[in-house]
Each structure stands twice: as C-alpha cells, then as structure tokens.
Amino acid sequence: MSGMELTRPDGSPLRVLVVDDEVNIAELVSMALRYEGWQVAAAHTGSKAVSTAKEFRPDAVVLDVMLPDFDGLEVLRRMRTSDPDLPVVFLTARDAVEDRIAGLTAGGDDYVTKPFSLEELVARLRGLMRRAGAQQAQSSSVLVVGDLELDEDSHEVTRAGEEISLTATEFELLRFLMRNPRRVLSKAQILDRVWNYDFGGQANVVELYISYLRKKIDAGREPMIHTMRGAGYVLKPASGA
Q1: What per-residue string of b and e applies to 73-97 under the rule 16 or more CB within 10 Å gives b?
Q2: Parent domain of 224
Q3: Is 216's pLDDT higher than 60?
Q4: Disulfide check for 87: which of 48, 54, 60, 204 has CB 3.0–4.6 Å away?
C-alpha cells in the first residue's frame, strides 16, 4: 500500500473533515478514512463544520448537502473564504436536482449519491486530493535551507536574495545537500548520487566540487557547508539565518 499512500507535501498524514448530520454515517465514513491512514475530524452541523475547518485545516472535505442549520453550499462558501482551493466530495440524496449537482461540481469537486459505497467515496477523495497534491508538488519545487533557496524547476539559486550562478554539476551537488539538510553525507554517498558511480579513488572530485560550491555559496558569508573530518559534509543554515 505504501506506494499508493497520499500525504501532505511534508510527509504528514492528510486531513479530512467529514460533515453529515447523520451521526452513524459520519462515523462510518470517518472509520473508512482513518483506515487509509488519514487524520479525520467530524461535524454534524454547518456551523460546527465551519468552526472545525478553521482549527483542523483539512486537505479535503466530505460534505452532506442537506444539513439542519444551513446547507452544504453555504458551508463550502464560508470555508473557501480562508481556503479557496479546498477540495470537496458532496454527499447528496438521489432526488437532488441534477443541474444543482452540475453547479456543485463545476469547480472540480465531486459527489456521490446516498446510499454510497465507502470504497467509491474513498476513491473519489483520493482522486481529488491527488489532483490537488499534484498542484502543490509543482508549486513547491523550491528547496529552502536558512537563507539559501534552490528552485528545482528553473534551476535558480539565491542566498539572502542574491542570485548565484552554478554549473550543472554544482547544482546537482547543492540539490543533494539541500535535500538532506543537517545530515552528514559521506563522499561515497555524494559520488553515488551526484556522479552515479561507485566509490573508488574518486573522492577528490567531491572535494573539488565542494570547494567550488563554497566559493559561490559561502564566500564572504557565514558558512553553510561544513566538513566533518573522516565522515563527509553537512549543509546547515547559518546561525543568523
């Protein structure tokens, strides 16, 4: 299952808010979603749903259209004032007006009609969150360590806002260091990941490129690239950053 797991960009579990005035349905849905490894909160009224969303900050919402105080559309409108792209799967009765449903799903959301299968609901949620997550992944292609930033898409590198020009190999080396901040990386690991060949008398190429990087990243500034004698190299934020 691990290959199928969806998480937040930082690797923490996805959060889903389940809103249904029928407590047993909300409970069943919550159990199914927890089984997926997601964090779940439940609400049984529109007002409770809106207040819970503010605290819980869900990645997606399962939302009953018919609620005792105000309807699911109003709930969504209020939630989206603080999270405009929040994905939603609506739960609707079979006799819901078709064009109203079409209006609901125009924004890229989805719906299932009651009675629904839990498998179908989970599949719809997965699809919505994968699409939302894919957008997040694209926009978060920037690695940040202290005041150093590297954009994996545009290949731009800056430190404290100043642009730094790197060769392709220097860029790959810095990317590897920035993906593993505060972790000591051996010369063998660096050779394997950046140059793709096994360790064998080539350590001097790593030393050489580390020295090139230092001249560009650390020159005249508090150093971020540190040598750990006999162990390798580590990149960490400068203490002032």
Answers
A1: bebbebbeeeeeebbbbbbbeeebe
A2: 142-235
A3: yes
A4: 60
- CATH classification of the domain holding 19: 3.40.50.2300
Mapping DSSP to helix (H, G, I), strand (E, B) and coil, where does residue 57 land? coil
Burial class (CB in 10 A: 0-12, 13-18, 19+), 55: exposed
On whether the CB atoms of residues 207 and 157 are closer than 8 A, the answer is no
| pLDDT (average), residues 86-114 | 73
Residues 225 and 133 in one domain: no
Domain contains 240: no
Pairing of strands 15-19, 39-43: parallel
- Looking at the structure, tell me whether residues 33 and 62 fall in a common domain: yes
**Helix (H) and strand (E) counts in the chain:** 8, 11
Same domain, yes or no, for 146 and 135?
no
Q: What is the pLDDT of residues 44-61, one digit of tens each?
A: 999 999 999 999 999 999
Q: Which of 116, 110, 152, 153 is nearest to 131 (CA)?
A: 110
pTM for this predicted structure: 0.55
